[in-house]
Amino acid sequence: MLRKPGSLSAVAAFVAALAAPAAHAEWGLNMTRGVTQISRDVYSLHMTIFWWCVAIAVFVFGWMVVSLVKFRKSKGAIPDTAMVHSTKAEIIWTVIPVVILVILAVPSARTLIQIDDSSKTQLSIKVTGFQWKWQYDYLDKGVSYFSTLKRDSDAARQMNSGIDVNGVDNYLLDVDNPLVVPVGTKVRVLITAQDVIHAWWVPAFAVKKDAIPGFVNEAWFEVDADKTGTYRGQCTELCGRDHGFMPIVVKAVSKEDFEAWLKAKQDEQKQASLPAPATAG
Amino acid sequence: MGNAHSAHAGHDDHHGAPSSIWARWVTTTNHKDIGTMYLVFAGAMFLIGGLMAMVIRAELFKPGLQFVDPAFFNSMTTVHALAMIFGGMMPAWTGLANWMIPMQVGAPDMALPRLNNFSFWILPFAWLILVATLFMPGGAPAGGWTLYPPLVLQGGDSLPMAIFAVHLMGASSIMGAINVIVTIMNMRAPGMTLLRMPLFCWTWLITAYLLILVMPVLAGAVTMLLTDHFFGTSFFNAAGGGDPVMFQHIFWFFGHPEVYILILPSFGVVSEILPTFSRKPLFGYESMVYATASIGFLSFIVWAHHMFTTGMPLAGELFFMLTTMLIAVPTGVKVFNWSATMWKGSISFEPPMLWAVSFLFMFTIGGFSGLMLAIAPADFQYHDTYFVVAHFHYVLVPGALFAIIGAVYYWLPKWSGHMYNMSLAKWHFWLSTIFVNVLFFPQHFLGLAGMPRRIPDYSTQFADWNMVSSIGAFGFALSQVLFLVLIWKTVKGGAKATDQVWEGARGLEWNLPSPAPYHTWEKAPAEAAIIQASPTGH
What we know:
heterodimer; A: alpha+beta; Helix Hairpins; 5 helices; 38% helix; 21% strand; disordered N terminus; B: mainly alpha
C-alpha cells in the first residue's frame, strides 16, 4: 500500500470504518426477487400474502386498539353485558376469511403447479449432499466435481481463529468450485444425498429441495438470459456439526461461455482420469 | 406457591396439609400440591432451556465462532427445544390444569390422585436422564428436537438415553391427559354441564384428547429409531428398503397436534382473563368451544406442511397447503370473539389483562406468518430459515408462554392468598413485551434475507439483525428475574387477597377462600352458584 500522510490515512481509516458495516451488513429486510420467472412469481405471491396480512392486521388491531382506548373503566365505560352472541357476526367473520383464503389459494396453486412442471429441461445436473460438501455431476457430459467451503472462510471460521471475518470476502458463502450453469436454459437438478439429509437452496432461484439418501428429488430453474452472475445459498437442513459450512454457489454464464467451460472441464477431467504413470498405488 | 400455613379459619379443614415434607410433597395426592410441583418443575426447566437459548444467542451475537463448538451448538438448539416444549410448556399447563380444573368444575380433587403423583414424579427423572447426556462422551443429542434420521442415528451414546427420556415424558403426559379427561367427564359437580364449564377446562379437555392420540405416535417413531440403531431394522434406512421421510411423516403426525397441545390451553386462559377485565361475558362462548374443537381436528390433517421441501407429489402439496390455510378460519373466529369481548366492555389493565392483550396482538402476528408459511411456493423460500424460527417463537413465547405467565398473575392471589406488587408486575410486563419483540421480530428479516436456522455462524450480511436479536434475548432473560422475585415475595407475604380477587372474575374458583384451602369442594357447590359462576350466566 502506498504511504500516505498520517492525517490523511487516519481520515481514510475512519471513512473505511464507517463504510465497512455498510459494505458487509445491509440491514436486509425482505426476500430477494431472484433471477428466474418462478422466483419472481414466488416473490409476488409472498408480497401479496404479506399485504393481505397487513390489511387484516390494520382492521383487527385497529378494532382492538379502539376498544382498549374507548371502553376503559377509568373513562367511565359501562359494560354492555348483554352483548354476548351474534349469529350474524359469527357468519360474517367465518365467510370473509374463507373468501380471502380462496383469493390467496388460486395464485398459490397456480405457481405450485408451474414449479412442479419439470418437463422439457435442456440440461440435467445431479446434486449430491455429503457431510459437509456438495457434489455436482453433469449427467452424460462426463463432468463431476466437489464443491467445498473456500479456504479463507474455513480458516476464519475456526474457533478463536484471530481472523476478522469482516475481512473475508463472502464469508461462509464462497466455495472452491461453484456450480456453473448457462442462462436462458431450463436446468434440471436431481438432488440426493450420501449420508444424512441435506437441503439444496438457492434463494435467487426460489429452489429449495431436500437431499435425501436413497431418494432422488427433482427441481428446475431457468435463469433469465440477461442475468449472468453469481448466486449464493446454503444447506438448509440440519446435517451435523458443519451444517453451517457447506454453502452453494452457482455461476450463471452465457451459453457460449458455458460450452467453453464445459469443454475445458471435460478435457481437464479426461486428463486426470488417464492411467497415471507408475506411482504408489 | 404452596399455602404452608393452611390453618385457614372459616372452612372445615379438620384435615389440612400433612406436616411432614415426605407426605406433603413426595407421596402427596393433593391436586394443589402436585400442581405447585409441576409449576416449580416447569419454572426450573424454563430456566435451563433459557440458559441454553442464551448460549445460542451469545454465539450468534456476531459472526465468527467465539464460544462453542458447532457440535455443542447443535446440542444446545436440540436440548433447548426439548426442554422448553417437554420440560417447560407441557408441565406448566399440566400444573395449571391440576390447580384449576378441580376448583373450576367443583370437584374435590383430580379423579386419579395416585396416577397424578406418578405422572409428576416421572418427570424429574426423565429430565435427569436427558440433561445427563450433556456430560456423556459424544455430547447431548444434536440432531434437532425433530430427531430426523439418519442424522440422529449418528448421535452415539446419548441416543438411547434421549429416547428413554422421551418415552418417560410421553408416558407422563398421557397419564396427565387421562387424569384431566376422567376428572372433567366424571367429577363435575351436579349441575356443572359441559357448556357451563370455563373455557380453560374446555380447551384442556380437547388438548388432553390430542395428547392421548399423538403421544403414542411419537413413542412409536422413537422406538423405531431405537430398533433401527440397535436391532438391525430398516424402517428409516433407505439402504435396507426403508424411508427416512417416513419418519418425518410419523413425527409430524405427532408434531403438529403437539403445537396445538401447547397453544390450546392458552386460548382457554385468555378466554378467562379478557372477560374478567372487560367486565363482560366472553363473546360467542359456544363458537369458541366449536372453534377449539375444529382446530383440534384440523391439526391432524395438516402435518406435512412441515415437509413441503421433501419432494412430495403435487397433489400432496396442494392438499396440505389448502388444509393448513383452513386453520386460519377457526383461529380467526377466536381472535374476532376476543376482540368482540373487549368491545363495549369496561376495561382495566391489571397485570393478567396486560399479558392477555399482549398475547392477542403478538399471537396474531404469529398467525400471520403462519398463513404465509402455509403457502407452499412461498414456503420453499421460508422453510428452515429464521423466518420459521420467528414464526414459531411468536406463537410459543408471546403466545403460549405469555398466556402461562398471565395465568400465574391471574390465579397467584388465589393460590397464595396474597396480592403481588403491582408496579413490579408492570415492570416485568413492559420489559418482557419490549424485549420479546426486539428478540424475535428481526428474525423475520434474517429469514427473508436468507439465513438458515440451526447454524452456529453466519455470513456478515446477517450481522446487524443478529446482534439486535441477541440484545433482545439477554434483555428478555434478565426481565424474568423480576418474575421470580415477584413470585417469591408474593408467596412469602403481601397484602391479603380477597376471595373474589378480581372485580369482574367469573368461575367457581372465586367462590373459594383465598388462599384456596388444602381441600376444596368436599361438598359440591350448589347448582345456583354454578349457574351464576358459569361463563354465560345460564
